[in-house]
Design a protein that fits this description.
The chain has 14 helices and 19 strands. It is of the alpha/beta class. Helix 4 crosses helix 6. It binds cytidine-5'-triphosphate.
């Protein structure tokens, strides 16, 4: 656990109850919350809920009723500002955005905002007309110009019955954004990383397809890790059940041919290409336009090979000489390192991430993995069992090291 501390400021909106889910989602990511509620927020939800969820005292007023409380409270916002890494306000009402943008400070949350000199994340929620009003838009723009992150409210049906942008972003998304802001690094600034993920689907007829087992989790973890380290990330994904990480450009594809076209058209702009997709090796030669009927007692499918995208990338990268780094994957059930070496050569990659898919409790659907990195520099690096997200960071660490080793020679 990284031991981050967040102040969660809760504004007085109908979505105030969702801040409780946010506190929980933050805690699942190892981020501890101190909750500050405005007076209006307390009309919607009781402080006790937040005290129970955060395990800490909830701050509800700027001043207390006794002289001691008043004295303590008059400096508390400064202490709170210094002790926390991020200020998250959810829901950020139109009133709060207006106060923050203009430096008004008449309660604990608005005084804390002025005293807070680290990352600020604002998650607005209000009626659509209020959000779109030029005054609110100008406030949001002013806050963004100041370096605050103002999330876009989600579109949908609002409590007032109207439809449009104004819903609080999902608490899980707010927590993800906060985690990103706290954890991001800059060693991939200026890089463009393309990641392929998930399986491809090759149609047999309009209702059936051939595919590979692949959850896409490893590829999505790589895309997130690269984005959190400052890269521009293009995620070319086959059909999977996962939410795309924040801050990546998602390109959805179905077939190997579509994946090939998506990857090759973007290849020139990429500095690192990571091919974690489980591409189908064959596709049906002639796909009928109508559904196949169950009339035959035995059915044979005639299959042609799909394009080997990794090999095509390898050839193109070698030809173009732009110093791009190519990383392939090898899902093996035996002779893992030897097979990885063979693919490294045959497909002209700089690194192959080999995983033994026969290993107990790992691979496909699992959130964990254990891999061996085989590099063109001749290294064989065992990465012990860890979460796919941690493995992703290790792969990127080794990729950067390898690139230095390979390209500093020339
Ligand atoms: N790959 C690809 N295009 C294909 C098949 C595979 O780009 N048509 C890529 C995968 O994304 C992965 C790597 O090649 O990065 C290795 O995939 P794998 O299926 O293990 O290798 P194959 O070449 O299919 O070898 P084999 O099936 O003989 O083990």
């Amino acid at each position: 656990m990284a031991g981050w501390r967040a102040v969660v400021g809760v504004g007085g909106g109908i979505a105030a109850y969702k801040a409780a889910e946010l506190v929980r989602a933050l805690s699942q990511r190892g981020i501890q919350s101190t909750v500050v509620m405005t007076a209006a927020a307390q009309e919607f939800i009781r402080p006790l809920t937040f005290a129970a969820l955060s395990g800490r005292k909830v701050i509800t007023t700027l001043f207390g009723s006794t002289p001691d409380e008043v004295l303590a409270s008059s400096v508390e916002h400064i202490a709170v500002a210094r002790e926390h890494d991020i200020l998250i306000v959810a829901p950020a009402t139109a009133d709060l955005l207006g106060k923050f943008a203009n430096g008004l400070a008449d309660d604990f949350l608005s005084t804390l905002y002025l005293a807070f000199d680290r990352q600020v994340l604002l998650a607005p929620s209000m009626n659509t007309a209020m959000w779109l009003h030029p005054a609110t838009q100008a406030n949001a723009a002013a806050l963004r110009a100041r370096g605050n992150v103002v999330m876009e409210p989600e579109a949908g049906e609002l409590a007032c019955g109207e439809t449009g942008p104004g819903r609080l972003p999902e608490p899980g998304r707010i927590a993800e954004e906060a985690h990103y802001l706290l954890a991001r690094r800059h060693d991939l600034d200026g890089e463009t990383v393309l990641v392929t993920a998930g399986p491809t689907r090759e149609p047999i007829d309009p209702v059936r397809f051939l595919s590979n087992r692949s959850s896409g989790k490893m590829g999505y973890a790589l895309a997130e890790a690269a984005a959190w380290r400052g890269a521009r990330v293009i995620l070319v994904s086959g059909p999977v059940e996962l939410e795309p990480p924040l801050h990546v450009e998602l390109v959805r594809v179905e077939t190997a041919r579509e994946m090939r076209d998506a990857v090759l058209s973007r290849l020139p702009e990429c500095s690192i290409v990571i091919k974690s997709a489980a591409v189908a090796d064959y596709h049906v030669a002639n796909v009928p336009t109508q559904k196949l009927k169950k009339t035959a007692t035995r059915l044979s499918l005639e299959l042609d090979p799909t394009p080997d995208i990794l090999a095509e990338c390898g050839a193109e990268i070698e030809r173009a000489q732009r110093g791009q780094l190519l990383i392939g994957f090898a899902a093996e059930t035996e002779n893992v390192v030897a097979e990885a070496r063979r693919k490294l050569k045959a497909k002209r990659c700089h690194m192959v991430v080999a995983n033994n898919v026969a290993a107990e409790g790992l691979g496909f659907e699992s959130d964990e993995n254990e891999v061996t990195l085989v590099t063109q520099a001749g290294d064989v690096i065992e990465v012990p069992r860890a979460s796919k997200r941690e493995i992703a960071d290790r792969i990127l660490d080794e990729a950067l090291r390898l690139r230095l080793a390979l390209y500093s020679r020339s």
